[in-house]
Each structure stands twice: as structure tokens, then as C-alpha cells.
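Q: Hi! First time doing this. I have a protein sequence and I read that you can turn it into a structure. Is that right? Here it is:
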Amino acid sequence: MSDLRKGHQGQDVAMLMLREGASQRSQWPLKGMVTLIGRSEGCQVFIDDRQASRHHARVMATADGYIVEDLGSKNGTYLNGQLLTAPAVLKDGDEIGIAFAARLAFVDAGATAPLLLDTESGPMLRMDTEAKRVWVAGREVDPPLSLAQYRLLELLYEGRGRVVSREEVVAAVWAEDEAEGVSEQAIDALARRLRERLAKADPRHQYVVTVRGHGFRLEHLAE
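A: Yes, that's right. Below is the predicted 3D structure, encoded as C-alpha cells:
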């Protein structure tokens, strides 16, 4: 098991996982009593987006479990899509929305979780671009991805973890005579469908990450 999930006494700890948003990290073990979330670099969970307040929300370890609380943020904190108006106890799988800047998944201690998120845990996603084949968690994706899904994945794969802009996605996926009429909703829908296809092969990981205001990034690649 990854040491990321271990507390000071070797016990599993809960964690937050980045599902969407701009941050230098994608997971945060909740090893302290209080975990601050926000745009201040002093926050344990740093969200690099002006929609996030400097001290936006916090997660606290209590006798009743982990509690999430909004800290008077300008643009609100959401729990499973609902505006958070009072502190709430978190359950495994809950989603915390930091305004519209980021989405964080809560994984409770001991839960069946994406323990392989750190890249040292082994190969996860691999492509053979010449044969146009894709493997996730050691298994080939079958049935194959649609052509549009494959083109998007190939673009992200060749980018090797960098953020790929929406303009790059349009140029890579759609024909030149179609590109002008492609909406942001169409791009988001394609990314969502690709994310869902990869999740069927490996539900423990989020491979396609939306970086709001910037584009998309592929994570957890095989070396």
C-alpha cells in the first residue's frame, strides 16, 4: 500500500483527490486535524484559481468523522452539488466543490480507493499509437475507443502530463471545415465520454483531468 495513505502510526488516513481544477498536486492525505483549502499558498490544498478565496474551506477531523466547512468564501463551497450553508460530515465518495474552480473527492480511511495514484506504484495507462491500441491498468480497452475519443487521448498522451488547450483539442479531433463550429460544450462532452470509458476499465483512477480555464491533462501514465 502506498505510504501516502499512512498516518504517523502507520494507520490508513482519509484523503482528498483532485477531480477537476488547477493545482500542483492531485491528492492530499488528511494527516492533520485541520486541512485548509484555498488560493493562499499557506493552504494545505492549494487551488490556483481566482474563483477560490484565499481561505475558502476547511476539512476537520472530529470524533464524529471528517467535517467540511465553508470559511465565508465569496463564491461558495458545494457538497455533492449543493451549496454548503453549514458544516457537514463527509462520507466516502462525497465531492467538494470549491466555487466553480475545483472539485475534490473525499476518500475515507480504509475505503477501497485509488491507492495507485502515485506514479511509483506501476504502469496504469499505456498506448501503442502505431497500432492505435490502449491499455488501462494492464488491460486493453475493449471495445476500442471511438475515433474522436482516441484522437483526444492520443493528444493528451503525447503531451505527457502538460495541460492541453481546447484549441489544440479542436485542431486534433475535428476536421478543418468542422472546427469553427465546435462549442465548448462539445469539447467537454467528448472529454467526459473519454473519462467514462477509461473509468470502466479502471474506476480507481481519474486519468483525464479538466483544468478549468486552461484545458485538459492526462495523469497516471505508464513509464
